[in-house]
Amino acid sequence: MTLDTSLQYAGTLDRNDSLSRFRSEFPLAASHIYLDGNSLGLMSVRAEKSLIAIMESWRQLGIDGWSAGPYPWFDLSERLGSMMAPLVGADPDEVIITGSTTVNLHQLMATFYHPEGTRTKILADSLTFPSDIYAIKSQLRIHGQDPDEDLIQVPSKDGFTLDEDRIIQAMTDDVALVILPSVLYVSGQLLDMAKLTQEAHRRQIAIGFDLAHSAGIMPHQLAAWGVDFAFWCTYKYLNGGPGSVGALYVSRRHFSKTPGLAGWFSSDKHTQFDMAHTLVPAPNAGAFQIGTPHLLSLAPLLGSLEMFLDADMDQIRDKSLRLTRYLMDLVDHRLKHYGFRIVNPDTDSRRGGHVALAHPEAVRICKALKARHVIPDYRPPQVIRLAPIPFYTTYQDVWNAVDQLLQIMEHHEYEHYPNQREVIA
């Protein structure tokens, strides 16, 4: 089938896009081609309004905002967890909005990692986000284990992707816990969570996933797959704002577990204000909260998640795959002579929400793109990540981004910039 590379064809795709109605809710999308939503999603009008609503409750009600107003604060984490649950294929009481990605990982490891006998090791991979590895090593030390001996990191053959069979082979009798990403943050490879969960459980090993690069861009079926736990941030595809509060999932099979890191908000809501010194944990995922929720960082999620409930995760995933496929096709057709290499999986079922282009001049090319109001993301080793977001990226945006990239390469514009990444890549 011949690829139509015309801008007119991109316009036709946009006119047939059922999600195009959401673009006007993201002001910055009108002036920039923003392809960095896998790092920080854009602010929506709805997110801004819900933030203002919580601030108004504080201004007008003071402490009574905990129990009054349009969004009472006391159970707001639970309310947002219920809104989030359909996005990850969970029951409402299995998801809670709390903490941050790394804090939640610490909580879950403190709860699920219990080295006993020969089962002392934690299995991870060599390509996961560094913060997860820092946390894993920390928990190993806390439990009296040696990170050099008790952390297994499955290597990559090509430096970009993982072989799931090698991961399964590493699920040996000395592994106590498996922690893996759903989508690799550099290459965008989507792992088969259902298969990995099944294989871990066949070996009596608990398994959890970091969904930071999949939550909000594709459907999940955490409960149906049997995943023990998961954790994720909300500021990428979920558009919750910089530093927005994280999320975690715990299968109801584990509701009887005592939270490894207990705090006041681990309490059952009915007894929390009894002020007893014996914790009565919440009978659901709320037990895995620790401290008071950060209300002003929760607030934008009310508006953002409302948008996800207005849309459909299958539609979001379908458009995401179409956008990334279109982007890859245009790169192959228009940039094939300029040294770009697509390192994300080509198969739709194995690809997350972004395209990863490897190029020796990736740092300088990213700077040249930003000067043209095309916002990419750089990640070592020499990778340009481009994430077209279904809510606010058009097919014409994708066409124009590739056209801008072509002009940068044709005129060697990247040579005007130093070959050194910024503090924030």
Automatic annotation (TrEMBL):
Functional pathway: Amino-acid degradation; L-kynurenine degradation; L-alanine and anthranilate from L-kynurenine: step 1/1; Cofactor biosynthesis; NAD(+) biosynthesis; quinolinate from L-kynurenine: step 2/3
Co-factor requirement: pyridoxal 5'-phosphate
Entry's Gene Ontology cellular component terms: cytoplasm
One Pfam family recorded for the sequence: KYNU_C
GO molecular function: kynureninase activity; pyridoxal phosphate binding
Signal peptide bounds: none
Gene3D superfamilies, sorted: Aspartate Aminotransferase, domain 1, Type I PLP-dependent aspartate aminotransferase-like (Major domain)
Main enzyme class: hydrolase
Function of the molecule: Catalyzes the cleavage of L-kynurenine (L-Kyn) and L-3-hydroxykynurenine (L-3OHKyn) into anthranilic acid (AA) and 3-hydroxyanthranilic acid (3-OHAA), respectively.
Entry protein name: Kynureninase
Species in which this protein is naturally found: Sulfobacillus benefaciens
High-level lineage: Bacteria, Bacillati, Bacillota, Clostridia, Eubacteriales
Gene name of the record: kynU
